[in-house]
Amino acid sequence: MIKKIKYYSVGLIITFVFLVVGIFTLSDYGINIDEPIHFERGNAYLDFFLTGRERYTNQDFESPRVSEWKYKGYDTAYFLKNDSGHPPLNGILAAISNRILHEKLGIMGDLEGYHIFEVFVSSLLVFLVFVMTRSKYGVFAGTIASLSMALYPLFYGESHFNIKDPVEASFFAFTVYFFYLGVERVKSKYFLLSGIFCALAFGTKFNIVFFPIVLAPYLLWKVGFPFITQRNKLRRLMNIPKSIYLVLLAYPVIVLGVHFASRPFLWHDSINHFIQIIQYYQGIGTGTDYQLRFLKYGWNFYPVIFSGASTPLVILIFFLIGAVVGLYLLKKNKDVFLLLLFSWIGVTLFRVSVPGSSIYGGVRQIMEYIPPLAVIAGIGALYFRNLLAKYTSFRIASALVLLTFLPLIWTLIQMHPNQNLFLNSLIGGLKGATEQKVPGAGETMGNGYLQGIHWLNDHAEKDARFGFPVGLGSNFPPQFVRSDIKFGGYFSGMQRGGEYMIEMFSAEFPIHRYTYDYLDRFINPVYVKYVDSVPVVKVWKNDAEHTKAGYIDEIEEKSVVMERTVDPLSIYAKLGRSAYITRIEVEYSTTNCVQDNTADYSYSPDGKKEITYPDESPLNQGRYVGSLQKDNKLVYFFPAVEAIWIQIAPRDLESCILKANSMRVFSLKDIRP
Q1: Residue 422 lies in a domain
Q2: What percent of the chain clears pLDDT 70, i.e. is strictly above it?
Q3: CA dihedral sign, ordered 467, 157, 479, 95
Q4: Which run of H or E residues covers position 634?
Q5: Does residue 117 sit in the same domain as residue 175?
Q6: Do both 52 and 82 map to the same domain?
Q7: Which of 521, 546, 571 lies at the terminal end of a domain, its last residue?
Q8: What is the pLDDT at residue 232?
Q9: Which one, of 134, 144, 133, 171, lies nearest residue 14 by Cα?
């Protein structure tokens, strides 16, 4: 036992540091926008498995500590009808850690009780990368590989607050490696372990379905192709222990069985429900080109470019050296493990690059490429160390290579807790990528909201109110908010009620809606969180004091001519001049028509170009705007857009809007085009 610990000592140290630092910094990270539903579903199913009940009881909420993500509206009965999307197993496992560490023992905060599961599983991957590399290429290569894994900014950051992707990458890696060991050592226990981790991966995300394709080149090389004509290959297959064949037959049973057992949604109407899940994956994984300028002949080069940009230069350089060395070793020594690594990376990137596939928000969804990249970087660092050792001692050469990681460590410290936003200098850093509007650049995935909340806790007056112009209520963890501060739909627009508003930013977010555009154009932010000179989170206070000069006083536009158009069926207001429009008011008859304000609201800045505003209804524009609506009156706000005409085309052709009697248009008094 002691000998084994010594054998893995360096890897254990790196893993232990990664885990400890991860645990002690958990409270610095927010919640991923995808996590709340996973926590809620995980708690519901966990309660169902423990008690057999489909609904919570009042007694479940009488404990001194009840998770924020466990409440009656989302119990098992709800998810038995509405559980589509990603699998629930990771949410159940995170709910277990929360139930023990937060609700029962009280030694961790509510959100941290879930996130510790993610950090723990991610730390296992750091150790696995060391083991994979050390067993083949020695301690030094293993050290660099595990450091590359632990310090990879995207993985390091998201391991604190992403319930799916780092966890899937970890289970995926264990699945691949144990299957490799099973083939190499001809032992059934490794295939069994691979099957268990494959089940965990399949219960987290369906990325693991590409595992057989990853294995294919390695297996074909290992077995020989076509092996039917090679008697020695056939003889070797016949000599394989029967226990291995039994485990391999049980492999899909384990994977599908665990998935079925952990997802009660599939226990009734199983076929149709499973088809719904497949359709969900087809919808998010195919058919939408999110990065048109990265497409060429239908192929999407965005995943390759973004994965390269997400890799720190020190790791990228060692990886490129390792790739060249690896190809040489593969040819010379027939090192099939290297073939497996190349296939692992290649399939992961290839599957989201082929024509018709889709990926968005960077490459967080395909983190499976990082473990083999880290291993190859370890091989490259080993080769580079050996070159340096020709001119100095091995110790000095090793130290010099290790020192190259110090700038990366310093970068991670400086970016804390936004390490997942890292992009290297080849793309101009985060700043350069944002200026180039590279999709996914600056995307905090909800983590950034907590930094705005911290500012509120330190600076907001007593009984302050806040909300998100675009984000959802599930995006903020209540445990971190000062007790007197209230969250809700307080957006008051031009009423300027003094509420605080928080929003995160990236090259493709937020989407343009009135609630956001108003704040961005009218209000000076009271706080901005910058990362690499890029604003990733802003906090506004919507009051007169913080309103920009010229954006307070309105005037009513004169000489407004209202007309009706046939194609499309709409009402149309032509202004006597171009102005920065703030709102329109339409009065109409309510006789023999439908009271529905859903419409396409459009305007033109020059009389030629037409721009459709994304809010289809004034009810999307906040509580204040909603309060202004009457049975015979529509009030719709624009965020000071330059317009010379405005058009309202109702979705319902029987809408009362088409019976308009008058249309009033208001604009900023002190700002002219």
Answers
A1: no
A2: 96
A3: positive
A4: strand 633-650
A5: yes
A6: yes
A7: 546
A8: 60
A9: 144
DSSP annotation string for 128-184: HHHHHHHHHH-HHHHHHHHHHHHT-HHHHHHTTT-SSHHHHHHHHHHHHHHHHHHHH
What is the C-alpha to C-alpha distance for residues 295 and 358, in angstroms, rounded to an integer?
11
Collapse the DSSP code of 449 into the 3-class scheme (helix H, G, I; strand E, B; otherwise coil) and give the result.
helix
Output the CA–CA distances (angstroms, integers) from residue 471 to 420, 485, 606, 637, 639, in the order listed.
19, 18, 33, 20, 19
Statement to judge: residues 604 and 480 lie in one domain: no
**Residue 228 confidence (pLDDT):** 45
Residue 446 has pLDDT above 50, yes or no: yes
Spatial contact of 160 and 94, defined as CB atoms under 8 Å apart: no
User: What is the phi-psi region of residue 592: left when phi exceeds 0, alpha when psi lies from -120 to 50, beta otherwise?
Assistant: left
How many C-beta neighbours within 10 Å does residue 282 have? Answer: 11
pLDDT at 226: 47
Per-residue pLDDT reduced to its tens digit, 179-234: 999 999 999 999 999 999 999 999 999 999 999 999 999 998 887 654 444 556 55
Residue 498 lies in a domain: yes
What are 547-595's pLDDT values in tens digits? 999 999 999 999 899 998 888 899 999 998 999 999 999 999 999 999 9
Kindly state whether residue 652 falls inside one of the protein's structural domains. yes
CA 245 to chain centre: 39
Q: What are phi and psi of 144, to 5 degrees?
A: -65, -40
Percent of the chain with pLDDT over 90: 80
- The answer to whether residues 304 and 348 touch, using CB atoms and an 8 Å cutoff, is no
**Residues 46, 171 within the same domain:** yes
State the CATH number of the domain containing residue 649. 2.60.120.260
pLDDT at residue 566 in the model: 86
Q: How confident is the model at residue 91 (pLDDT cuts 50, 70, 90)?
A: very high
pLDDT tens across 398-409, in order?
Answer: 999 999 999 999
Shared domain check, 562 and 491: no
Instruction: Round to whole Å and give the CA distance between 437 and 597.
Output: 34
Final residue belonging to a domain, choices 528, 546, 564: 546
Domain span holding position 536: 449-546
Question: Within 13 A of 283's CA, how many CA atoms are on the CB side?
Answer: 9
d(CA 34, CA 658): 41
Angle in degrees, CA 371, 365, 445, rounded to 5: 115
Q: How many separate domains does the chain show?
A: 3
C-alpha to C-alpha distances, 173 to 127, 151, 477, 493, 608, nearest whole angstrom: 11, 17, 31, 49, 56
Beta strands in 222-320 (DSSP E): 295-296, 299-300
Q: Which is nearest to 159 in space by CA: 115, 128, 202?
A: 115
- Sign of the dihedral through C-alpha 605, 611, 614, 617: positive
Query: Do residues 541 and 568 share a domain?
Result: no
> How many other β-carbons are positioned within 10 Å of the β-carbon of residue 540?
25
Beta carbons of 559 and 664 less than 8 angstroms apart: no
- Are the CB atoms for 41 and 264 separated by under 8 Å? no
Whether the Cβ atoms of residue 122 and residue 128 lie closer than 8 Å to each other: no
At 233 the pLDDT is 58
Q: Tokens 């009218």 map to which residue?
A: 522
> Which residues touch 198 (CB under 8 Å, ≥6 apart)?
171, 175, 208, 211, 251, 254, 255
107, amino acid identity:
I
Residues 638 and 499 in one domain: no
Query: Is there a domain that residue 673 lies in?
Result: no
Same domain, 158 and 271: yes
